[in-house]
Structures are given as C-alpha cells and as structure tokens.
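One thing: mind reviewing this one?
=====
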Amino acid sequence: MVDQDSDFNGWSYRKKPLGGTETAFVLLAESLSKLGHKVIALTKSSKSIKYQGVYWKPLDTKIKECDIYLINRAPSLLDKAPKCKKTILWLHNPANYLNKFRNFRRLFFKNIKIVCSGKYHYNSIPFWIKNRAVIIPLGLSKDVLLQKIENNNIPDPVVIFTSNPERGLDWLSEIWIKYIKKEVPNAKLHIYAGSKTYGGRNKNKISNIINKIKELNEDSIKFFEPIPKNELFKKLLTSRVMLYKGDPGETFCLSIAEAQALGVPCVIKPIGCLGERVIDKVTGIIAKSDKEFYEGSINILKDDSLWSDYRKNSIKLQRHLNWDNIAEKYLELINS
C-alpha cells in the first residue's frame, strides 16, 4: 500500500488528528493484516515501524514483488509498481482528473482495478476506464463500533462540526448566527477543525476561514484544536447534532459516517456524496434549501422526541460498514 501525500502511520491514527483519507488507509492496512496477510505501507514518514501488525516504511523503500499493489490517489505511483498479481488505484476524490494525459497514458493499457466509494463517486469516473471500476465503501473503525452509546441521555443543544473548514464552514457560521442561534439562544456550535488534521496542507486558506469566523466575536461559536479520533468520538457522543453543508469534491465523508454510527443526527445538503450518508427524515435531514437546513437544525435542537427517533435510527441503521468485511472485498479483487 502506497501514499505519497502525507507523513502518517498507525500510531498517528491513535495519537494525532488525522484526515478521513489517511484514516481509511490505516484501517484498511490493519484489517488486511488481521486477516493474516503481510502488509507493507509506504508513506512520507522517515521512520520504519511495525504497528498493529502493519510494516510502515518510508516512501522510497524498494518492493520487488507482492500480491496486491494498492495506490492511494496518485496514478504516478504506477511508475514504481513492483511485480504483482493485481494493481489497485484507490480513489478519494472525483475522478475527472484521470482524464489528464499524464494519468490517461499510465492507466489506459494497464491491467488495473479502480476502487471508488459510492454511486456519486462512480459516476465521476471517465467512460474509458469505467468498466475497470468497482464500488467499495469506506469502513468504520472498531473505535467507533465498540463505543458505548447511552440512548436515554438527551444532550444539551451542542452542535458539532468535525470536517475541513474549506467545506462550507463560513456558510454554516452565517446560517448559525442569522437563524439557528436566534431560535435556540442557549445553543453552542463547537468546531473541531484545523490544518493539523491534513498534515498542514492548505494551512493559510484554512486559517483564513477560521480567523474570519473568530472575528465575528460570536460567543456561541467555539473553536477547538484538532484532536485524535478516540477523543473526537467522545465529543461526538455528547453532541446533539452535526451540521454540515458538504462539498462537490467529497466522495464519502467519513466524518458524517462516524457521527451517524455514534447515534448523532446530521443535517446536510445533497451536495457531493452526502445524500448517501444520511437517511432523510430517518437518521437526519437532507436539506434541499438553506431554509430546510436551518429549520431542520432548529427542530432537532428543540424537539427531544424527534432527536431521540433520529438517534435510535442512526444506531440501528448506520453501523454496518465494518473494515474487516470491507478488507475481504479488496482481497477478492486479486482474481477479478
């Protein structure tokens, strides 16, 4: 398994804030290892460690032969492919970038499988390689699935945001101040976000968004430094609802999947893949307009019975994506 974008490993997942793509990479590697396979994961890390059964090594480590060569995001890594039974390109963004000539020439004649995470994602794959694509969703970690969830404790009106600030946080802050806070005066918006989650990528842009919102001097909006996943899950468990606009560049949204699996109702817009993560009027609300968004948010914050129904439904219906089962689907690709 190879990722050329970030410095991370299995230890990072437990001890540092980590983005959804990197989290998925770690958990798939560990699940494949649990199934009895030797897994070597190459990233921009300068250290070699064995963690949770996975051999984490620097990106420039030479691998001569393997059963599966799994590339995370970047077709350029095909140039370093060892002899293998199956090459897999695992996509995490809309796939139109595969049309660029440098990617086209690497992929067109290659015996390769393309993995995407859902229907929205699949529809973005260019026609010339679509017949080599399969849908395998991201999974949920045991850290989520083994969390003890209390059904009877109704939380205070605390809203949580745990995604990339570039994905609509400025819009959400405006909706919050203009509509939601006025109807629910004791509500709080807690934001766990920052460039540290993404290894410092887009630091200036993310900082500008956060600083712009801080300059509003709105007491009900509070920023927190990004925290490791296990700590973040505990914060989610005490939250009333997660609000998130979404982004066309998002193809799975692990943050919403995690929130739903922990019983947190979500209000989202049908942008990108988000309509695949929430069951409308069952585990949350898919709002077609700004008005539906803020009215739905207000209702969940004020109506304990509605909140309770969404919570119970989320726990019942949104906890099926187990990484161990998903890892089996990757192994099935060897002979496909």
Observations:
- The chain has two domains: 10-139+322-335, 143-317.
- Residues 143-317 form a domain with the Rossmann fold fold (CATH 3.40.50.2000).
